Amino acid sequence: MMNVIERIESQLKGHPVLLYMKGTPAFPQCGFSARAVQILEASGAAYETVNIFDDPELREALKEYSHWPTYPQLYVNGELVGGCDIMMEMHQSGELQKLLGGAVKQ
Q1: Binding site for [2Fe-2S] cluster: what residues are annotated?
Q2: Which residues are annotated as a binding site?
Q3: Number of folded domains that form the chain
Q4: What Rg do the C-alpha atoms of the chain give, in angstroms?
Q5: What are 12-53's pLDDT values in tens digits?
Q6: Which CATH number does the domain housing residue 54 bear?
Q7: Cα–Cα dist 56/92, whole Å
Q8: What domain range includes position 65?
Q9: Which CDD domains does the entry link to (predicted)?
Q10: Which residues pair with 49 in a beta bridge?
Q11: Of 32, 16, 42, 2, nearest in space to 103 by CA
Q12: How far apart are CA 93 and CA 40, in angstroms?
């Protein structure tokens, strides 16, 4: 059985664009997670999400793994991009679309 860090790394390898969030895209559990989903939807990128409330062990371990204390957390190609504020800034400047360019929905 994989430990929690191996699970995180497996998720990141398996999904080019991955959002760790509170809740799900259909039922976000916080405003920041809802906004992050809106930004990803607006970008047209294919993405996956992980509901951190489904996995308390992962929720705690990911803070250590990423050195980022809050959620949501967006990863692109295994690299932490940041949270909602950074996503907003990058979306407004066009940087996020460039970063997500390789991950557009088919």
Answers
A1: 30
A2: 30
A3: 1
A4: 13
A5: 999 999 999 999 999 999 999 999 999 999 988 899 999 999
A6: 3.40.30.10
A7: 32
A8: 4-103
A9: GRX_PICOT_like
A10: 19
A11: 16
A12: 14
